[in-house]
Amino acid sequence: MRSLIDIQELSTEEINELIAVASDIIDNGAKYSSACRGKILATMFFEPSTRTRLSFESAMYGLGGNVISVSSAESSSAAKGESVADTARTISNYADIMVMRHPKEGAPLVAAMNSSIPVINAGDGGHNHPTQTLTDLLTIYREKGRLDNMTIGLCGDLKFGRTVHSLISAMSRYTGVKFILISPDELKVPSYVKRDILKKKGIEYVQTTDFESVIPELDILYMTRVQRERFFNEEDYLRLKDRYILTPEKLANAKADLRILHPLPRVNEISVAIDNDPRACYFKQVYYGKIVRMSLILKLLEVNV
Amino acid sequence: MNIDSIKNGIVIDHITAGKGMKIYNLLGLDKLDCPIAIIKNVNSRKLGKKDIIKVDSDIHVDTDALGYIDPGVTVNVIKDCKLIEKKNISLPAKITNIIFCKNPRCITSTEQELPHTFRLTDTESKVYRCIYCETKAETK
């Protein structure tokens, strides 16, 4: 029995296998439509989320399985003071696989340590969110046909954005990847990410505050939202939130096969005028998110199709 | 200075000078009623100076705790006045309830019953991280 708490737990071969199965689901969807018949997925969301919860639920229904849900901490026994360990032991009797989002870092790991069914971490505070990274990897793979030899621009909040750190870590496994890190000085990638991942693996990277001059180099542009909740001071948030806004003018010199990704929700960092540009992929990314979760559910339930 | 040799018990040797008392407290040796000697600032060829603890009782020693506080110590097990085992203690891969996570966002901050476990993530710089939230342990 296996859980997924941190993307680092997956070997490169396993990631490639998840992507291969996901690609097969896209190409031959019908053969998966009852792969999980009779199986139950429990979604335990102790923190608000729309897309991640619905994505998991839709993924399970897409495999012919069933879903039971806890949609907030207030409506669960956590409100009565039940521990994560006890909740996990209990849910193990009701479902075959569990998805957990929790405001406390490490809660899904505690659930996995005490559960007799696989646990998927759907976000633990600002810590890990492995299925977002799998979504990003599948999107890049499907849109570019490869995961190696490309220049990836990451733009916006590179300091607090957990998706950015996980993506850097995951893409660092592949050869010929170069990163261009675009952010205001206040929101630069933390030094431990540079030291422990980029420098350690000898990966080429550039840090810049100048968005427009680097756009022509990029194969992937990963935009992020500056998150209000990360700031103690409203003034700092207001000053930084509109620093980088992607508009059609800024794409004038971009490559024709550039792909623009965003973990969503978007606020205003990507102009809606770009939504119909063939290079915009952020809504396709939502679709890929569901597909890669289907692939992950199959893997953790050890269902072979 | 003469200290009797022990019959059945342990000798913790090669303790970094000055850490003897810390180890005495950490291992809960103050709670024992057998003879215990803490010898401080003994001349050592290897370390210059070292501390030694002798316990005249066959006790269980938490070698993980010991290795975290002072990697490089040795634990000699004595039986019938003879040395029967010599353990070289190095940095443990995992430690539990020796240090505590102070990250207010960590699950251990709200669930008091959880063991505080840290994993050695960088042997060279002796970095331990909380297994739940990956927060780096404060230097000892």
Structural notes for this entry:
The complex is a heterodimer of chains A (about 300) and B (about 140). Chain A is about 35% helix and about 15% strand. The model of chain A has no long low-confidence stretch (mean pLDDT about 95). By secondary structure, chain A is α/β, with parallel strands linked by helices. The longest helix of chain A has 19 residues, at about 280-300. Chain A is built from 10 helices and 9 strands. In chain A, about 45% of the residues are buried. Chain A has 2 domains: about 5-130 and about 285-300, Aspartate/ornithine carbamoyltransferase (Rossmann fold, 3-Layer(aba) Sandwich), CATH 3.40.50.1370; about 130-285, Rossmann fold (3-Layer(aba) Sandwich). Chain B has 2 domains: about 10-90, Alpha-Beta Plaits; about 95-130, no CATH class. In chain B, about 10% of the residues lie in helices and about 35% in strands. In chain B, the strands form 2 sheets. Chain B has a 5-stranded antiparallel beta sheet with strand order 2-3-1-4-5, with helices on one face. In chain B, strands 6-7-8 form a 3-stranded antiparallel beta sheet, with helices on one face. The longest helix of chain B is centred in the first third of the chain and has 7 residues, at about 20-25. At the A-B interface, α4 of A face loops of B.
